[in-house]
Amino acid sequence: MANDKLQIKKLYAVSSDNRKYSFSLPLKHSIRIGKRNYEVQLKQDEKYGTYILWKNRKYPVEIVRSRQNKYEILFNDISYTFSVETPFSLQRMKVLSKQKGKAEKEFVKAPMPGKIIDVLVREGSQVLRGEPVVILEAMKMQNEIQSPVNGHIIKVSAKPNTNVMKDDILVEIKVD
Amino acid sequence: MIKRILIANRGEIAIRIMKTARKMGIETVAVRTAVEPNAMYLSLADVIFDNTDDATDIPVFLNIDKLIEIALKTNADAVHPGYGFLAENAYFADKCLDNKIEFIGPSPDAIYKMGNKTIARKIALASNIPMALGHEGNVSNEEEAVKIAEKIGYPVIIKAASGGGGRGMRIVRKSEDMEKMFIIASKEAEKAFNDPSVFIEKYIENPKHIEFQILGDKKGNIIHLGERECSIQRKHQKLLEEAPSGALDDKLRKEMGKIAIQIAQAVNYYSAGTVEFLLDSEKKFYFMEMNTRIQVEHPVTEIITGIDLIEQQIRIANGEELKLTQKDVKLEGWAIECRINAEDVQAGFAPDPGKIEKLSMPDDHYVRVDTGIQAGSAIVASYDSMIAKLIVKGKDRKDALLNCKKALDKVWIKGTKTTLPFFRMLVRHPKFQSGNFTTAFIEKDLEQYHYNSEYEEMLAAWLATKLFIEENLTEESINIDFRKSRDISPWLLNKRMNQF
Q1: In this structure, what CATH number is given to the domain that contains residue B144?
Q2: Cβ contacts (< 8 Å) between B360 and chain A: which residues?
């Protein structure tokens, strides 16, 4: 049956530097460390807002953004980006990355000091070579900073209305 | 006698000044602005001047004529400028005095002389103050810069004459780079300080930044309140300060303190001020500059000396003589200040303005919090990104560090990204713990700017997976249904709606 094919037993959260965390379904509200299970609770109250309670400690959590299966989570004030994959989509990812060989990182740097006028991409965006990623204003001229490769954005450091120095990293691209 | 002070500032420093004024039975006037009409500092003022209908382009805290007008209208007999804005503007101080309003700070003459770094250099030279090798006066062009640098020897540093805060500053290591760096520094200086003039000094490699707190009265008595260690900085922006410094023993403290007082004497300094030095690995020190204002990091000195610096400033402005002598100043214990800013540590400390949704600070006996922000406050792009100063004390450095670590884990801020992960990393870093670090620490010794304990990423992954399930999988089964999002949690829904 077609329906059976869609039965999912596991999900994977893949971090931006490709660490995989697997969770069986239905999702348990506990995490196993060594031989013990520790309860995880997602809670919310007036004083703390949303938080995770784990091992008797509260950790502040926040969804910075979510888009399709991509999530940026602020956990204890640190940002993590994951794509959540099913076994099928994970398999597809593997095949795709194998076909294209080992992916490498490319840093797009500011070619000159200036002010960021606009950031045209977000974490996770696909970009093609020559596609503008950032508009940088320097010496009263607006310059399009282009992607040197085909790939997808893994980190956006440039922020609109901030000044950058020469060679400051604007975005990081994982080469496809 | 000062009866009513106009606070020409906002945020935590406005509150800090108002607290002392209240203690002394002095009234305060605060200015309500359109940018933050409900800011926390307004709640502590005795009088609020409403300036929300101001249509001029410049912020009121930079508008000299407007501030004088407000002081006169509200019958304030003194102005406290705080730090930043007009705190080191000699013309503003002068204008206040012209209008018979006491300026709580040094004389316009001292502000002017120390504010102009080339003049300050000349004064220091004339008083035999140890300084980095340099050229007297401003450097007019790239060719001259190259010549001077050859004479001094690379590396050199170009600095803005009217500068401060790291702007208009460039380190040059070889003559090929000089032309380019000279132009950048000069342009930056012009933009930031409305004055393109720069000068050149020998660059001291890997120094410690040590500054001395000075107090002087109008009768010519000047004392120092010990040093602050401010070597933890990024791009010349201080992030954490402590007092005292582990790098100084009593002998060196005495020697540097004496020189600091000498500099202050050279400009007949009164009020609170700070003399900044660089200390090299051989414990040789060099005068860098004098800041003629109360500083952000003043609380660490207050904690180890027990002296209220704002109170001293007000008393000095009143013409009172210092009751303290150098002998009365005792340094006790250790204090550390963390500047918790709305910045994204993982994105090069980029400002992350936004609304603070939740804020809870520790209230242990070893903690002092100076803040102008509460839950519901906004961190606005037009001002600085400070949320709070977390100031922690201990009986010695080790104890203070331990308390700092505990306190950092109790700070709870939601709404923007903050520099908390940076401090949590720092207090665990062996080199920082050893005290053996320089101003190059952040640039050279750190691989990661934040700290996360084991399992934190895994817990975040669990949350991402939970959200994915709530958004994409149907209730009873675990079949993917990308079209329906029936199971979306009210929390997530809320979050989404707030985004628009």
Answers
A1: 3.30.1490.20
A2: 47-48
